[in-house]
Amino acid sequence: MTTTVPTAGPTPAAGPAPVPAAGPAPVPAAGPAPVTTGPLSGAGFTATALSGEGFTAAAVPGGGPGGFDRLLEAVVGERAAAVRNVPATLTCFTDHFPRHPVLPGVLLLESMAALARTAAGPGTWRLAAVRGVRFKHFVGPGDQVHLTVEVSAHGPHRTECRATARAGGRVVATARVLALVSDETTREGTA
What is the pTM of this model? Predict the structure, then answer.
């Protein structure tokens, strides 16, 4: 690499130094390099490393806004474990409920489904059925929810899982069956 050093010459006129324009810092075009880790590497998954530890839901297959924050373990076709943090800044807490904020059960269920999609493996999976869901305790601002999913039936077009959510050392929600189908399968009533 060649560096150019300015030659000595006349000094610029005295005056205020130019101030850079305010705004967000430029983002490198390439972004962080993808890395493969642990049990996911054999399945062809990649995730973006952040500060050397953990993954974000956006970097994990099947993650998203209703997903999870960090993937702890994933063995395709067998099991997966993740963590979801519940910040007090979620907009749902203003209305659900103002005096006693509670994370809506549907968001907890979506976190379980996102983890089930990760355990199902590569491809596009959608939630087809949910059976035996129980909400046992409230989840509120500041809680950290540990999610676990165990695959009970796995095939190329359909996967069924059991899911458990724990917060504060106790079970807060369970789902007896989360049935996922591959997006390649034909939906009922369509040709």
Answer: 0.66
